[in-house]
What does this fold into?
Amino acid sequence: MTRINASKPIITLHVVASVDGFIARKDNTVSWLDSTGDVYERGVSETEGADVVTSIDCYVLGSHTYEHALELGWPYGDTPTIVLTSRELPRTRESVAFYSGELNTLIDETLAPRYQNIWLVGGALLCQSFLRLGLVDEIRLVVMPVLLGDGLHLFGNSGPETRWRLKDVTAYKSGMVELWYARKRDSQGRPASIQT
It folds into this structure.
């Protein structure tokens, strides 16, 4: 997991989506994320990926994801967490800081000097903004075995077509599947785009 420029952090977009590509219902609820109740015998348990979580230096999330995380019992522990918002929100943990401003400035001036492994965990508009700006190095997409039929699209307007390289696929006992992609780069280290 190294960048061309070692001083820049690796930014990973990590999100859970339905099979049909939604990350929330139309009313913005995410109760469908609860355990599937399935048992896929050849899958691994979710605890086998715990070492990945301990390597995360910082989380970045939008205000609605922050509110969902508080409702769900705060899954991010004491890892530094930046919430992007223009609203006044309660600061319930010492590890949380709020930011409203340019995303490039956030990465270059605030996060890059302090963190190497940054995870962007939602919501959809924030993820799309990071993708449009070319700030995402890796995508870890967890697909839940559910069709929602309608709701908030994960990728929507994510910018121009870009090439990604599959790094790994993990199937879990719960029936979830994680697809791990890294952004393809050209010989100069620039993001590779699809020519039309």
Q: What stands out?
A: Residues 49 and 144 are 16 Å apart (CA to CA). The radius of gyration is 17 Å. The first helix runs from residue 50 to 54.
